[in-house]
Amino acid sequence: MRTLLFQDRKGFIKYLIGCGILITEYILTNLAIAEIAGVVQTRSMDDLLKYSIFALFAFIYAALIFIASRLLRIGFMRDTTLRIRMEAFKNIMTKTTRSFNRKLRNEYISNLVNDINTFEGKYFHALLNLFFGASIYSVSLLILFYLDYRLALMMLLVSLGVFFINRSFQKRTIKMQEEVQRSNEAFTVNVSNTFSGLEILKLNRIEDRFLLNSMKETDRLERRKANYFIFTFWQGRFSNFLGFITTILILYYVISTAEEGFDLARLMFTFSMASSTIWPITEIMPLFNVLKSNATIIENILKRDEDSEKTDEVMQYAFDRDIEIRNLSFSYEDKIVLKDANLKIEKGKKYLLKGSSGAGKSTLINLLSKVHEHYQGEILVDGVNLKQIREDSFNEHASFIYQDVFLFEDTIRNNIALFREYPEAEMENAVKGAGLKSLLEKKEQGLSEVIEENGKNLSGGERQRISIARAIIRKPQILFADEVTSALDETLGRHVEDTILSLDTTVIAISHRFYKGVSEKYDYVIEIVNGGITLKTMEAYLEGVQYE
């Protein structure tokens, strides 16, 4: 957190000045009050007029200082919050795929929205009051040493005692704030999932069950928030109690040590400065706990993952000969998916991946694409261990076509090119290869037609074809396809699969469909059965297959 604050040193200095100048208004106001109180002793109308004018000046000065302080502070507060949002978003965007998938998407949304909004609302308010309180304490203690050094020494010892008593609440405060954060994440995920599947819930008349779950999550969140607020409230009340008792003792000391003919204005100012060394301390530690708990949350959001800082991923992805799998084993918890599997994938060949549901087809693709790395055995790309290859380099040379297609709320062109620049001839080739001609003919603006949120104005087949066009235009070294034609009709499915098989790239595809006259173009069939991998030529595979 300290690093974030110091990134804009000039802004931070202005922020400190904005906090510090408030102390002048505080001291001036207290001095004016003390002098006016002194008029009671002198009963001088001249003094009353003089110090009334002084008090009016102090009031006007206080208003101007507050405005100046606000102007000095607001820019830094805004820029720091913006920087945190940008850093948090950058941290998410630069995660490795395996690291990103450790959390649900909606948890990231909760971090970016709920947690940072909470930080913005509480952190700078606490920081201002912390600096202000520390300034009051320091200046008041120095003035008190001038007025009464014995009282100053006593207040120094008392304030340190109060500080350490309050500090004992710190760990509990931070823990409770983190519990609120986790409950916020769980609540956001639960609500988002419920809304995403609301249509299915209503059709199956089970919305009451999910409503009950949502109410439980809401209750858990509100209870933890209430516990946090109650704890911090009573922490503050306890601190105030200590301050109240100390103030009474200060008053007793000041009155009991006053000599005959004492100066009432000086006595009042001494009492005010002594009180100002205890009240800030009763507030500082609760504020410090708020700062610490919110800073911990932000630091957790911005924390770089170990995967993102791997030092062994140093090699570039270069697939010129083959990918070899040696004695590969992989398990999900207690379920063995692959066991001592061996396979060689040749550059430029087309592989059809077959197996029953849950056999491990998608798992094999995830292993080959660096999504999973906790496996036994080796995956070698031209002899280089896949674990040593940089993920960004791999992603640059690989393309994926999934059943679940994500589309941006942007033009068809940008959804195909993914905001990169491509020659018009390459765009035309991708459109033709993916069978998008008929779609573009129906759109008045063609490639410039804007797609609604995640393709709401497109059919499933149209969305899939845009995904295929994305893969074609990138000219990848290797293409992974998962049930590409499942949402397409027979004619278009044959066309799309024929296009994929005609690409000058290595293809590894999962498909339950078999298009006679097209699917035979695969060079090999990879079968996964009981954790083992068998490689057959298409001719050998077809000898045991019957199809219409």
UniProtKB/TrEMBL annotation:
Chain segments annotated as transmembrane: 12-33, 53-76, 126-145, 151-169, 228-255
Domain ABC transporter, chain residue ranges per copy: 323-547
Molecular function via GO: ABC-type transporter activity; ATP binding; ATP hydrolysis activity; ATPase-coupled lipid transmembrane transporter activity
Pfam families named among the record's database cross-references: ABC_membrane, ABC_tran
GO cellular component: plasma membrane
Domain ABC transmembrane type-1: 36-293
Top-level lineage group: Bacteria
Subcellular location: Cell membrane
Record-linked SUPFAM superfamilies: ABC transporter transmembrane region, P-loop containing nucleoside triphosphate hydrolases
Record membrane topology: Multi-pass membrane protein
Keywords for this protein: ATP-binding, Membrane, Nucleotide-binding, Transmembrane, Transmembrane helix
Record's protein name: ABC transporter ATP-binding protein
Organism encoding this protein: Proteiniclasticum aestuarii
